[in-house]
Amino acid sequence: MEKLIIILKQMVEQGKKEQAQRLADEIKGQLKRMIDSTDIDEDLVRLAKMQKIVADLEQQLKD
Q: Among 20, 21, 50, 52, which is least packed, fewest CB within 10 Å?
C-alpha cells in the first residue's frame, strides 16, 4: 500500500490528474476495506495516516 501512495504522490507531482484520481480512488477503497477488517489499534492508526496522505494528495489535484 505504501508503494501505491508513493506512486500516487509522483503522479500528482507530474500533473497526471486523471490517472492520479483513479489511483487515489482505488487506494481509498482498499484502505476502507483494510480498516473494516482490522481491530488492532496500531494498524488502524497506520491506515488512518495513509488515508490522510491520500486525502492531502487529492486536494493537491484539485488546487
A: 52
The reply to whether the predicted model has a pTM over 0.85 is: yes
**pLDDT, tens digit (0-9, with 9 covering 90-100), for 34-52:** 999 998 999 999 999 999 9
Q: Which residue has the cell 491520500?
A: 54
Among residues 20, 22, 19, 18, the alpha carbon closest in space to that of 9 is found at 20
- Return the percent helix, strand and coil in the chain, to nearest 5: 85, 0, 15
Cell numbers describing residue 47:
491506515
